[in-house]
Amino acid sequence: MSTVVVTGGAGFIGSHLVDALAARGDDVVVLDDLSTGVRENVAEGVRFVRSDVADAQSLDEALEGGADAVVHIAGQASIAHSFAHPERDLRANVSGTLAVIDACLRAEVPRLVYASSMTVYGEPATVPTSESEPCRPVSYYGVTKYAAERYVQIAGERTDVDLSVTSLRMFNVYGERQRVDNPYQGVLAIFIGNALRGEPLTIHSDGRQTRDFVYVGDVVDAWLRVLDDDATRGRVYNVGSGRETSIDELAGAVLSGLGLDRHSIAHGPAQLGDLRRSGADVRALERATGWEPKTSLAEGLAKTLAWARR
User: Of 140, 141, 146, 215, which residue is the catalytic one?
Assistant: First the structure.
């Protein structure tokens, strides 16, 4: 049994990972400010600390008694929000990550795995995009995620401490517990929420832009494999499905899955920081850990829609 602290553990991805850690017998501590997370997502028996991730005292409380690993998922995850409130984006994603690193060093935590983002690449020259692609973020959010990733990686390179770090560049994660009432949560969840409420789906740009949608169950599997494998120390990996899906295709799949043959679709201009194409080359993670994405978009969407209807 290990002790694992999960920041953002009441949120969408974090709560699924917490469930998986607890199911295998780990002692789990969650730190979350519930700004987007839901307290009910955290199972009974899991110690919960409600706090902003940048609060040093609360991080020390979560790490009291020691920990074998910290999984750092907490952060501000909206590109639109990053442009509207860049100072909040900076605090959550960069200051929060620095606070987590410092807390790990104070508590002598040996392992830190960080949730980075595909937005660090900006508009990539090559799709599918590998980890060797230059990082040129085109949104404030992408800048803060890349800055935080570099802080994590450099902390792992320090010779005065022994901290094993790995960063995972997450592509478009979807699945159960993704908020369908949050206009900044993710395009698939936004579409589902719009459709269930009888609102038109809004497609920005021409709808032919692509994203890589990866099911949360596959993402959790990737996190567990990396967390347990110190051979991934100092590395950065993509976590995606390896497949591109256009936003037009996604909207059609959501409406079809809900049995809505006739539903209003509106069109709007491209949003700040939008990318034209996005797709992950996941071969590095496959080679390192044996992980592979197993859930098709059709299968994952069916599970997500069934949950959303409930």
Answer: 141
* CATH number of the 3-173+214-239 domain: 3.40.50.720
Q: What is the pTM of this model?
A: 0.96
- What CATH number was assigned to the domain covering residues 175-211+243-309? 3.90.25.10
89-127 pLDDT, tens digit per residue, is: 999 999 999 999 999 999 999 999 999 999 999 999 999
Cα 186 from Cα 227, distance rounded (Å): 25
What residue segments make up the domains of the chain, in order of their start?
3-173+214-239, 175-211+243-309
Angle at 99 between CA 162 and CA 20, to 5 degrees: 75
Annotation says 141 is catalytic = yes
Tell me if 255 sits within 8 A of 201, measured CB to CB.
yes
CA atoms of 301 and 215, how far apart (whole Å): 8
- The residues, ordered by sequence, that sit 6+ positions from 297 with a Cβ below 8 Å of its Cβ are 213, 215, 241, 243, 245, 253
DSSP reduced 3-state for 266: strand
Single out the residue of 149, 137, 134 nearest to residue 100, CA to CA.
149
Sign of CA dihedral 156, 7, 43, 305: negative
C-alpha dist (Å) from residue 175 to 26, 93, 188, 235: 23, 23, 9, 26
* Residue found under tokens 């679709």: 265
Cα 140 from Cα 142, distance rounded (Å): 5
Give the tokens for residue 19. Answer: 């469930």
Q: How confident is the model over 135-186, as pLDDT tens digits?
A: 999 999 999 999 999 999 999 999 999 999 999 999 999 999 999 998 888 9
Taking a C-beta distance cutoff of 8 angstroms, is the pair 280, 252 a contact?
no
